[in-house]
Amino acid sequence: MSTTLTRPSSTASEADVASTGSKLTRVLGIASLVGLAVLLLLAFVFTEPDQRVFDRGLDLDPLLTGQGDAVRLLYVHFPVAMVTYTAFSLNAIGSIAVLWKKSMWWDNTAAAAAEVGVLFCGLTLATGSIWGRPIWNTWWKWGDVRLMTTTILFLIFVGYLAYRRTMTDSQVRAKRSAVVGLIGAINIPIVYKSVDWWQNRTLHQQSTLRDRAIEDLTLFSMIFGMVVFLVIFAWLMVHRFRIGWLEHQIETVGLEAAIAERRAQTSAAVEDAVTDSRASAGSGPPPKTGMN
Amino acid sequence: MEYAVEVHDAVVLLDRFPALAGLSLRLRTGSVTLVQGPNGAGKTTLLRMLAGLAPLERGSAIVLGNDVVTQQRQVRASVGLLSPQTMLYDDLTIAENLSFWTTLAGYGDVDMGAALERVSMAPFADQQVVTLSTGQRRRAAIAVVAIRRPRLWLLDEPHAGLDQAGRDIVDGLIADAVAAGATVVVASHELDRVRPLATHVATVAGGVVHAFETVGDPGLTADDDAAGGADSA
Amino acid sequence: MVATQILPFAMVILILFGLALDADSRTLRDLAPGLFWVATLFASVLAIQRSVAVETVSSTFEALRLSGAPAWKLFAGKALAVALQLLAIEAVLALGIIVLYRSSFEDPVLVVTAALAATVAIASAGSLYGVLAVGMGVRDTILPMLLLPIMMPVLVGATRAFGDGLGTAALDGWTWTGLLALLAVIYATVGALAYAVVIEDT
Lengths: 292, 233, 202
Fold this sequence. Notes:
The complex is a heterotrimer of chains A (292), B (233) and C (202).
Chain A: H1 23-46, E1 53-54, E2 63-64, H2 74-101, H3 104-136, H4 145-165, H5 170-199, H6 216-264, H7 267-276
Antiparallel strand pairs in A: 1-2
Helix pairs in contact in A: 1-6, 2-3, 2-5, 2-6, 3-4, 3-5, 3-6, 4-5
Chain B: E1 3-14, E2 17-28, E3 32-36, H1 43-51, E4 58-63, E5 66-67, H2 72-78, E6 79-82, H3 94-104, H4 112-118, H5 134-146, E7 152-156, H6 164-179, E8 183-187, H7 191-194, E9 200-205, E10 208-214
Parallel strand pairs in B: 3-8, 3-9, 6-7, 7-8
Antiparallel strand pairs in B: 1-2, 1-4, 4-5, 9-10
Helix pairs in contact in B: 5-6
Chain C: H1 2-21, H2 25-53, H3 60-66, H4 71-101, H5 108-134, H6 142-150, H7 152-165, H8 173-200
Helix pairs in contact in C: 1-2, 1-4, 2-4, 2-5, 2-7, 4-5, 4-8, 5-6, 5-7, 5-8, 7-8
């Protein structure tokens, strides 16, 4: 497969060529850090805990139906889950592109997306579990649709990453992992539906954004959180992609050297072979190492 | 078709190692080419590439008019590769193997009896491959390849492990192939045995062809250009 | 070889579960559908590994590629072979759960249909992953890691269908069988198409 070896967009000077940093990543990185700090402040300091109550009337005490302080975790859990699905969708698109257009650029993107996705998927499961403990009274709930789907997703993509590591030929690896990635992706709705039918219920909240009872600050924090994590995602993706791309370039360069070395390795060997066969016409001079 | 095989600057990687490092070669239809060279030179990889089994990283190769990159299936279906591995199922008998491989390749009516006779394996037709000796397995493998009447024969060390009778069978096979107008490529260390049968000799080392010469039968055109000669940049 | 190695393995799983769970027969009966399919899935991993390994012994995989046969035919052959082996194993496991777990086949038509659909799905997906996991001399230990997570819907569906068919759960087994049939079609199609990816390269 031939690919255009376009440099990742960068205003870095020649001296920076071995690093994946650039003006873009610096901007993204700072935005991430600042945004994360602000988000955490919003989530853990400025917003109110969920103190909704259910008035039972008469002289019974109101029932605490809200989540209390646990709701703060949602400001992280929800965006992190969104990023997970974004990452794996990107992997699916990349896999299709690899199989259809045979593009190594997309293979690199798919691989980067899978790695970042697995990271965020793990975070989703972790934050979800921590949130769930006080709310559901358990770390794990079998039959919760989103939990089951996310867990299977996690396993599928951990397997995908492990599979990629078993292959060294980059083109074979690209095509085969694209198949694995795609099958993983098409499984998601299937898994979701089957668990949904299985349990026919979910302990997950319904979409919070549609709940009119959310105040302004809560809503703002939610949306802000999504933006911050998308920025973090972009930042990680750019770095990871560039690492992969540099590896790809090293491989290409290394190939040239290997070919040259291979062609040059033969002088003594050739002479032996030629004197063995009773060739009267001598062999040509040792080949030049230049490629056409 | 004048040239059964046309290879230009082929690079074939085996796990990032360039087994073929820019190899060029042209073989006339009907020729018998001995491919010689030290171990690790790339002879086996060359044959596999011509069979359409080893993908080209760079360069091009046209085998029997088919491009190995875009027309892999046609290439594979038209060549006969005899490799050091038997490529037979151990648990099946020779007859079952023959039947399986010919049916899979889409050949309807084949004369299995004649094919086995040719390699003197008829008495063993109903024996499981695993019970046979190396030489016998090789002969059975030859029968499986021969029955398809390929236009291009790729023989990788065909004499290895065979007794005198077996070796004569291989030589006869090459003669039959030539008589039928097919092209033969033999990678071998048994230069004394194969050279007399050959029309050309290619010396391969370091993943490229170092020398290409015409020998033997002057029936083939004498102006055989050194197309497969020492690589030029 | 199926009879002497894989079958006993599947039976051993059933017995081990019985021992480990230390449950009364009532519970084992309820658990039977799940245990049956877990045992089947483990056995399928073995069967697929064997089916792929047989091609690496004498380079017959190369010969298959050389034959010029279209990839989907090769896939169909492999998947069918695995499916038949699995059906044989399942038949014996069925006897196993009757004897060991006191299962009773209240709706044999449902049970058989569900088993057929699930088996096709497992054999198809497994054959594809099997060849993906081997082609380059990759150690096939990656096979269970790749195959089992995506078999999860098959496991859920087959267990529920069996639950209905064996009378241990009040659900609609036929809906689940429908899902299994859909998965069977999906994996048979995907397998046939994707097999070419592997056959083309090394």
